[in-house]
Amino acid sequence: MKLYCGGIEGTQDSFSRQVPPDSLDCSNLTIHFRRYLECDRDQIVDALEHLFDPTRFTMFTLNCGHHPASSRHRSVAEYSSMVSSIMDVLDQHPSISRHNFVWIESTPMPFCNAYRAVIKHRDWRTFHRLSMFNHVANRIALAHNYSVIPAFQSLLPFVDGSTCDPWHFPKQAMLGVIYPLIHHIKVMKNLHNQTKGENS
Question: Structure pTM?
Fold first, then answer.
């Protein structure tokens, strides 16, 4: 988001910043980032209670697939249960709806992670495992009537590992995820404003 929208500063674990009004398609967009590595239900409950203010934030986005799939060695059944529990929490929250929450797919891993990550660190984030995890999470999110932002397929052209960072893609590659997210936010914001105008 920082690469596309600009104006965002903060630590790796948390940042919050009002994007400048002249920042491309992100004008008047406030972005808050909080790093949650696991699909921990209690962390999401805490975030909704203390961080998500619908009067300040347009959209609540979430992804928590990589670390359960990595050296944590969560099973597909465990991951399915974790995601289902989170979706149940979202369903019960009065400020969350299909208009302001979106699930983002987990990205694939660069091919050059085969030795350093999979072997040395017992990282199980293989292509097929992440694909399975995405299939499970997407199915659950859609069943709860939430939108899913594609990330897996859009980053496949970059998995050849030309940069050979075994865990991360170049920032420019992530624009393939940011563009549809920004588009979704704009569509939902316009829909919300239109509905608000009709009801006034």
Answer: 0.77
